[in-house]
From TrEMBL:
Signal sequence annotation: 1-38
Annotated Glycosyl hydrolase family 32 C-terminal domain residues: 410-604
Keywords: Glycosidase, Hydrolase, Signal
GO biological process: carbohydrate metabolic process
Protein name: Beta-fructofuranosidase
Span of domain Glycosyl hydrolase family 32 N-terminal: 63-360
InterPro entries noted in UniProt: ConA-like_dom_sf (IPR013320), Fructan_Metab_Enzymes (IPR050551), Glyco_hydro_32 (IPR001362), Glyco_hydro_32_AS (IPR018053), Glyco_hydro_32_C (IPR013189), Glyco_hydro_32_N (IPR013148), Glyco_hydro_beta-prop_sf (IPR023296)
Family (UniProt): Belongs to the glycosyl hydrolase 32 family.
Domain of life: Eukaryota
An example Gene Ontology molecular-function term: hydrolase activity, hydrolyzing O-glycosyl compounds
Amino acid sequence: MDGSRRSLGLPAAAAAVALAWCLLVMVLSGVFIVPASATHEIFPELQCVSVLNVKKVHRTGFHFQPPKHWINDPNGPMVYKGIYHLFYQYNPKGAVWGNIVWAHSVSRDLVNWKTLEPAIYPSKPFDIRGCWSGSATILPDGRPVILYTGLDKDAVQMQNYAIPSDMNDPYLRRWSKPDDNPLIYPSKDVNASAFRDPSTAWFSGGHWKTVIGSRHHHRGIVYMYRSKDFKHWNRVKHPFHTVPNTGNFECPDFFPVLKAGQNGIDTSAVGENVRHVLKVSLDETRYEYYTIGTYNPDKDKYVPDGSLEDGWGGLRLDYGNFYASKTFYDSGKGRRILWGWANESDSQANDTTKGWAGVQVRTWKSYDFFSQVDDAFLSYCRRCTFCQTIPRTMWLDSGGKQLVHWPVQEIETLRGNKVELQNVELKRGEHVEVKGITAAQADVEVVFAFSDLSRAEHFDPRWGPAHRICAQKSANSPGGLGPFGLMTLATVDFHEYTPVFFRIFKADNNKHIILLCSDARNSSHAGDLYKPAFGGFVNVDISHGKLSLRTLIDNSVVESFGAGGRTCITSRVYPEKATYDNARLFAFNHGSSPITVEKLSAWSMKNADRNIGGTI
Ligand SMILES: *[C@@H]1O[C@H](CO)[C@@H](O)[C@H](O)[C@H]1NC(C)=O
Ligand SMILES: *[C@@H]1O[C@H](CO)[C@@H](O)[C@H](O)[C@H]1NC(C)=O
Ligand SMILES: *[C@@H]1O[C@H](CO)[C@@H](O)[C@H](O)[C@H]1NC(C)=O
Ligand SMILES: *[C@@H]1O[C@H](CO)[C@@H](O)[C@H](O)[C@H]1NC(C)=O
């Protein structure tokens, strides 16, 4: 890693900040009472239905998961003294959204995780109705501080901070929430029901800065707040970013990327060698999009590059089940790492009829959350298959027009038995099975080669967005150049399968358009599960006649990285027959143009310690 490029001098600020930090004496005066309502759907009758004694079939083997119950946004990822921390929105009581706390796990390698007690949970007037998402900032003296959204008894959303109670505990098990919270209370012109998810703060021009998601009617807004001492925050007059007709912005993430190379850089970095990225999560569609642009730290203005769509059709970090993502700078390894929530969608009613036993209903109050941890180890549930995606290293593509991500290299430590295929030609309608690995839990890297681009079908711009094309032209619909790719989690008779595949088109301007699809529609035939066809275009040069694909298959997750991580798609699937040893993996081609599996390497993947036990 190139250490010289991640330099960023904060020492001048350090002393002032450290001093202010020690003076934790200021108590905000007054109690704010403003009626407002939370937006999250609440199922009071279900949120405390504890889960006991149910099937493990769709549990993942190496994706981050809690032992049971509901999980949503990853929160406050950070590295502190060589230990990675991941907090996440968690319901310790049940498998639907509710009773949200900041659950806490630690790891030395981003792969094996150990659960600690929840770090932050409702206990004070400024968060008594919820401890929602937020981020960690490492202060110049090395101490972490968490900014998070708390809801008071009237469900007003406000920004609070928490600090470790014992800096000598390497696991930072206990966190305290000083009484001078909240740090940021919504002023009258801010929507107090949509004011949340503070980002990691950065330091520039003598100020700490953080961005917070919001809305005004249907306009998405990212507000920026500034502080000299991390304690007294003022809103910058202009919205940091705002876009009409997007709906609420959640989980804004704002960070620099280096113009060249794959290294990451500290969140406070500015200057000639960086571009900036603003990502928002769209509450209404549960999609995210980002722009790359220019940040002026003096004026605190962010201007997205004009060529990029700034709205619903914008670039996405992942075109599948992926939401509420958050990055952090891994200072030890000089890389920026992305976490996302692989959400799923099944009806709440379905969830309670499937696999639950041992109903335990309580009304909402401030629990003794620590007593829940032992209970959490007792059982697994079938439908508590919410998880986080594999942490990904992220950087700016060499053309500067999009981000690229790739599973952290540590995940490769789980690779077991390996098989390879080389130079296997697949004519129209042919497939080849990849035998000798655990196909339900595998890591697959493949390079497809094609010599003849002439059979690429004509592209019609009226077809609409990528996912719509994937829904119309399935893996079985014959094409010219493609569809070709992988059939994952397949039964031997192809009754169930989740194909991940490319199709190459030719547009009127003679340019090639490459589509990557991940189609869950035949992944199982159970009831009314959410099984969409996802798709994204791939911006890559194919003049050398090659396309690569990596797919991490993990029982109920199919997480794919097209063209070296330029287009990523995560699908959640629930096969009934293609499970464990009954799952198969194939490479296939349903295009008329022959393609060659130039090289395919596949590995069985071992289980990681996923919060179930173990030590770090
Ligand atoms: C404020 O946010 C709430 C929750 O998202 C929404 O229902 C309401 O319409 C918003 N009000 C305005 C004025 O934007
Ligand atoms: C998950 O995301 C999809 C869109 O990708 C959305 O339709 C669905 O409502 C989301 N489910 C949950 C539980 O957030
Ligand atoms: C699903 O499988 C059926 C039966 O094999 C097939 O007719 C259909 O085309 C498949 N759909 C997709 C989207 O692959
Ligand atoms: C989900 O519930 C619907 C009825 O609401 C039912 O038809 C369907 O089979 C259920 N799905 C599963 C997987 O249990």
